[in-house]
């Protein structure tokens, strides 16, 4: 509700600040910090995320930090601080978003006393680096989402549009799975479940995704899903594909956080299915919200 | 409520932006079917694997073994690195590992640790610390107990 009300207000502000470039910059940075906090706080206040900061495999952490850059660039291209037409504009926005994410993480972790000067540099850097990934995604989205604009599908060829839909689903899946993957509950739930529970969860995830993607989609407004599309066509091209993306993103998140080390295939698949549930919801919601 | 808002926002956005779907053909591209088909294969493979396991798993209890990997001298004693293995189809939680150093069938030192989880057919590594050199005596590592997760 609040978002709906802030939308016209956001557009008014946009018009006002257009007169003063300095105010525009400050408002943009403020929105970035707002987004970083909204998206990052759940993880900044999760103790497993603090612990992961010092014990997560350094190679996997570095890979996550590096992969975050192309992810932010593509996201900026879709949902940037402003309409970007050139790649170096995207790069600048990404650098600013990453910096906002890092600063927001440092400030919040320091205020919580989770990061102190008494700690070794390796621990501080690890904790901040891990948190900066979700916070930077939030900073990038914050400026567009809090500013009242909406992500427009890229005006490219059909394949590019389809790829961008899948990319947005992957971002949604990554975001929600990063939120919950570090907690112990993810693996605990998978240990409590039997194979039958897992199959039921797969069916529930796919059903909910399809409800989001197809049934709740405003028929006709989405150019990739014209109203006369048969259900199985949307099901195969978006729902099943989105769920497969959610499963793979879940596997990546579990691997990054060391949840797959020395674990047999069946328990890994079970925790993948558990984590893919929120990831699937995130993927489906990303198409509506972003 | 939320759904309604979503819809009105969507239609608002559609009015503001020029429609750009006229240029598109109605039929989805072949690539979309290829990606959809591959995704269906991934999902079906996972469903099939879990189904196979669900059908072939009898209700059973964890089978725990503790394997000594190496014994190393540290600054203030000795460290025994072990790997606890669960050979069953169910996960064991709160596994208590006890290490004993025995001389002439008498325990002269014990050490212990609790492992949070050992998933089915998986392992978990850990270490036990002793003040005496375990390699000079008889070293026993056993799993003392567990709970269902």
Strand and helix map with partners:
The complex is a heterodimer of chains A (290) and B (149).
Chain A lengths: L1 H16 L3 H24 L2 H9 L2 H22 L7 H26 L8 H25 L12 H23 L3 H9 L2 H21 L15 H26 L8 H25 L1
Helix pairs in contact in A: 2-5, 2-6, 3-6, 4-5, 4-6, 4-7, 5-6, 7-10, 7-11, 8-11, 9-10, 9-11, 10-11
Chain B lengths: L1 H15 L13 H27 L7 E11 L2 E10 L5 E12 L2 E13 L3 E9 L7 E10 L2
Antiparallel strand pairs in B: 1-2, 2-5, 3-4, 3-6
What is shown here, in short?
Chain A is an all-alpha fold and 290 residues long. Helix content of chain A is 78%, strand content 0%. The longest helix of chain B has 27 residues.
Description:
The complex is a heterodimer of chains A (290) and B (149). Chain A has 290 residues and is mainly alpha-helical. In chain A, helix 4 packs across helix 7 and helix 9 packs across helix 10. Chain A folds into two domains: 152 residues, no CATH class; 134 residues, no CATH class. Chain A contains eleven helices and no strands. In chain B, strand 3 and strand 4 form a beta hairpin. In chain B, 26% of the residues are buried. The N terminus of chain B is likely disordered. Chains A and B meet through helix 7, helix 8, helix 9, helix 10 and helix 11 of A and helix 1, helix 2 and strand 5 of B. Chain B: InterPro entries: CHP02588 (IPR013417).
Main attributes of the structure:
heterodimer; A: 290 residues; 2 domains; globular; B: 149 residues; alpha+beta; Immunoglobulin-like; 6 strands; 28% helix; CHP02588 (chain B); transmembrane (chain B); membrane (chain B)
Strand content of chain B: 35-45%
CATH topology of the largest domain in chain B: Immunoglobulin-like
**Low-confidence segments of chain A:** 1-7
Helix count of chain B, per DSSP? 2
Q: Which oligomerization state do the chains in this entry correspond to?
A: heterodimer
Query: So, the CATH homologous superfamily of the largest domain in chain B?
Result: Lipoprotein YajI-like
Helix fraction bin of chain B = 25-40%
Q: Radius of gyration of chain A in whole Å, from Cα? A: 20 Å
Report the principal-axis shape of chain A: globular
**How many structural domains does the protein architecture of chain B include?**
2
Mean pLDDT of chain A: 83
Protein name (chain B): TIGR02588 family protein
Keywords (chain B): Membrane, Transmembrane, Transmembrane helix
